[in-house]
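Q: Predict the bound structure with magnesium ion.
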Amino acid sequence: MKASGEFAIIEQYFKQQTTSEPDVILGIGDDCALVELNSVQAISVDTSIAGRHFPPDANAYDIAWRALHVALSDLAAMGATARFFTLALTLADAQPHWLAEFSKGLFAAAESANVCLIGGDTTKAIDNALSITVQVHGRITDKAWRRDGAKIGDYIYVTGSLGDAAAGLDVYQRNRQSLQPELLTAYLRPKAELDWVNVLQGKVNAAIDISDGFLADLQHVLTASAVGACIDIDALPLSQALTSYVDTEQAIQWALSGGDDYKLCITSSCEPAQMPEGLSCVGKITENLALELKNLPADTVLDKNGFNHFA
Ligand code: ADP
Ligand code: MG
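A: Predicted complex:
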């Protein structure tokens, strides 16, 4: 990419959001962004690579939306309020139409989560693999929701429904896009569960976002907290779209082990009656260090390990 090309791209496609975030003193355009902070910050970075994290032929709008929301999901999982982000983009080429769609998806996602883009880096790929790195910054207003906070006797809750994204990937791979738009959207356009941050403030002992599969991610909480769990399979939230797409065994398998849902799993000492609507209580934290599954259909095949890049 020529220097002039690089700067024209930044100017045209990325320097377009006006920030209402009072702590941002200087955004895109100088050697650094400048922010003034007076609270605990939550910071996380995620890379999305074509062919590994999303289909290389997905449309640019969805790719951008997904890359930002996947990164923002970690802020939700920490109980943080999203504020701003940076974007490191490594492009195979610079097609104006692709960049325009990417930029549209990116800023739509940014607006949906009320975050602003304050800087980044734009480079040309050598091996043609599109790579998108998003660093997100959030504010902890109350107490951070750490993985090591689960207490024996806590109720385990999940937001929304599980398994839809794994089903959406299946839909995409089988080319059934027009038949299952809901499942497809769950996979291609996940939405970080940031709306739960305020609603659940003060009620959460531990939390994680479900990116690699419910069992695998729950296990991270159990390990960090040195506790076990008992999960009731009958209590898993399965969407109507999922159960009408596949049989119960497959739906349960995707709900337990499918990746990419980006829902939250939280533990809380509050009983279900004290919790807001939209959460499903799926089990309890136990002293016994095992992860026990109640009511699992006999022939369900499970992957408890989740996705692991170098495994
Ligand atoms: P430097 O050479 O000083 O590191 P760059 O030339 O890489 O700066 O970038 C110029 C400005 O544009 C910087 O403010 C940088 O943060 C911003 N920027 C570069 N690429 C992007 C991008 N993809 N999205 C948002 N801001 C970007
Ligand atoms: Mg510089």
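A: Residues 31 surround magnesium ion (ligand 2) (CB under 6 Å).
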